[in-house]
């Protein structure tokens, strides 16, 4: 995807962070226009509102449908803002484009479904419109990249990704766990892909919007998509995670935006230290693997099995506890030790075969 373009629109100021804001759902003409005018006064340039809402269960508010596109047209005419909405089917894409929507996004439930993604890609063939693809609900980077590739293959070049967090099995502070390693890896794999964060859907609560936005900025995200409603407490969907335009403006004004390109001499020195430590880590790991091979030979000579589950659990537990004492995360250390153990077993198998 070397020829991707930034998310530009004629007249859009693309300084980082690019902000997309607006209600979860378009509810009434009045709610849409009141919110849009308030956001425009705060300098927001792209207005979002869902007119078709994917709901987990039937019977909830499923969006106002096409009439909402008329309200978005009024937003554009009255405020000069660009508009954005979620599309999930060919019919949505066609209606949104005819309705003059400037930017389309694809929701997390849709991004998880390759058939739906292909239908959307086919309907975007030959169209030049910016498209943002949310991460699929499951923490599956390949599925996310696959969804992006389908849209790219349809010819869309103003393509971007929205990180909105993932469904999680464990109890979590978040509505959708951010699992930052996935967007970070996406950036490594496709460095020129514009990356937005959606702190509203990650956090699920108003008070998490500011810290999550700051985290996204610190990680070099290009923009944010935030839910903002003129009367958040009365919102028809996602009311706990929407903020008023005034609160949003306060949050944005307090963000610290660090320049991603400046590297001072001190930072270079710290990076040299990291490189040196990484070298030492690798040498140590390699020595550990050599010992593993020797253990493999011993087990072979004595006809012992390679995997000794009890010893393995002891290693994991002991190191996880030690990691906590050293100020590191217990789960992090279990993951590291599991990976090392897996490679050890592979080395031992080599000797035994
Ligand atoms: C939304 O943006 O309102 C939405 C439905 O988000 P997601 O697809 O991330 O759940
Ligand atoms: Mn929402």
Protein described:
The structure is a single chain. This protein is an alpha/beta fold. The protein has 2 domains: 18-253, Aldolase class I (TIM Barrel); 265-352, Chorismate Mutase Domain, subunit A. It is 49% helix and 10% strand. The chain has 13 helices and 8 strands. An 8-stranded parallel beta barrel has the order 1-2-3-4-5-6-7-8, surrounded by 5 helices. Strand 2 (46-48), helix 2 and strand 3 (82-86) form a beta-alpha-beta unit. The longest helix is centred in the C-terminal third of the chain and has 37 residues, at 265-301. It is elongated. The two termini are 42 Å apart. Residues 24, 50, 54, 86, 107-108, 134, 164, 201 line the site of phosphoenolpyruvate.
Topology at a glance:
Layout: E1 18-22, H1 29-41, E2 46-48, H2 67-79, E3 82-86, H3 90-98, E4 103-106, H4 108-111, H5 114-124, E5 131-134, H6 141-153, E6 159-163, H7 181-189, E7 195-197, H8 199-203, H9 209-218, E8 223-227, H10 245-253, H11 265-301, H12 309-325, H13 330-352
Parallel strand pairs: 1-2, 1-8, 2-3, 3-4, 4-5, 5-6, 6-7, 7-8
The structure holds phosphoenolpyruvate (PEP) and manganese (II) ion (MN).
Main attributes of the structure:
353 residues, alpha/beta, TIM Barrel, Chorismate Mutase Domain, subunit A, 2 domains, 8 strands, 10% strand, binds phosphoenolpyruvate, binds manganese (II) ion
Strand fraction: 5-15%
CATH architecture classification of the largest domain: Alpha-Beta Barrel
Hetero groups bound? Answer: phosphoenolpyruvate, manganese (II) ion
Find the CATH superfamily of the largest domain.
Answer: Aldolase class I
- Overall geometric form: elongated
**Topology pattern, helix = H, strand = E:** EHEHEHEHHEHEHEHHEHHHH
Query: What would you call the structural class?
Result: alpha/beta
Residue-averaged pLDDT, rounded?
A: 95
Q: Percent of residues in helical segments?
A: 40-55%
Tally of individual domains: 2
CATH class of the largest domain: Alpha Beta
């Amino acid at each position: 995807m070397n020829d991707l373009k930034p998310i530009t629109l004629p007249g859009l100021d693309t300084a980082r962070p690019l902000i997309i804001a607006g209600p979860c759902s378009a509810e009434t003409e009045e709610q849409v226009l009141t919110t849009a005018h308030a956001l425009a006064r705060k300098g927001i340039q792209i207005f979002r509102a869902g007119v078709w809402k994917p709901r987990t269960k039937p019977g909830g508010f499923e969006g106002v449908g096409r009439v909402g596109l008329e309200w978005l047209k009024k937003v554009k005419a009255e405020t000069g803002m660009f508009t954005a909405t979620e599309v999930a089917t060919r019919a949505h894409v066609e209606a949104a484009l005819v309705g003059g929507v400037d930017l389309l996004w694809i929701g997390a439930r849709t991004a998880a479904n390759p058939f739906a993604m292909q239908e959307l890609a086919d309907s975007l063939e030959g169209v030049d419109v910016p498209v943002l693809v949310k991460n699929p609900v499951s923490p599956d980077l390949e599925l996310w990249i696959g969804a992006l590739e389908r849209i790219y293959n349809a010819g869309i070049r103003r393509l971007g990704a929205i990180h909105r967090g993932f469904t999680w099995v464990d109890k979590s502070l978040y509505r959708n766990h951010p699992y930052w390693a996935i967007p970070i890896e996406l950036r490594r794999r496709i460095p020129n892909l514009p990356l937005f964060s959606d702190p509203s859907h990650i956090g699920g609560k108003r008070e998490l919007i500011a810290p999550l936005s700051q985290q996204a900025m610190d990680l070099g995200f290009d923009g944010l998509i935030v839910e903002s409603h003129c009367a958040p407490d009365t919102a028809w969907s996602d009311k706990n995670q929407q903020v008023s335009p005034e609160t949003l403006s306060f949050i944005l004004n307090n963000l610290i935006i660090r320049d991603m390109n400046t590297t001072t001499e001190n930072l270079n020195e710290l990076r040299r230290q990291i490189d040196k430590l990484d070298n030492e880590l690798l040498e140590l790991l390699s020595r550990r693997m050599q010992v593993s091979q020797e253990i493999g030979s011993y087990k072979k000579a004595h006809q012992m099995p390679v995997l000794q589950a009890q010893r393995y659990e002891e290693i994991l537990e002991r190191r996880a506890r030690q990691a906590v004492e050293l100020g590191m995360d217990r789960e992090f250390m279990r993951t590291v030790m599991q990976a090392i153990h897996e490679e050890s077993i592979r080395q031992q198998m080599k000797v035994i075969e």
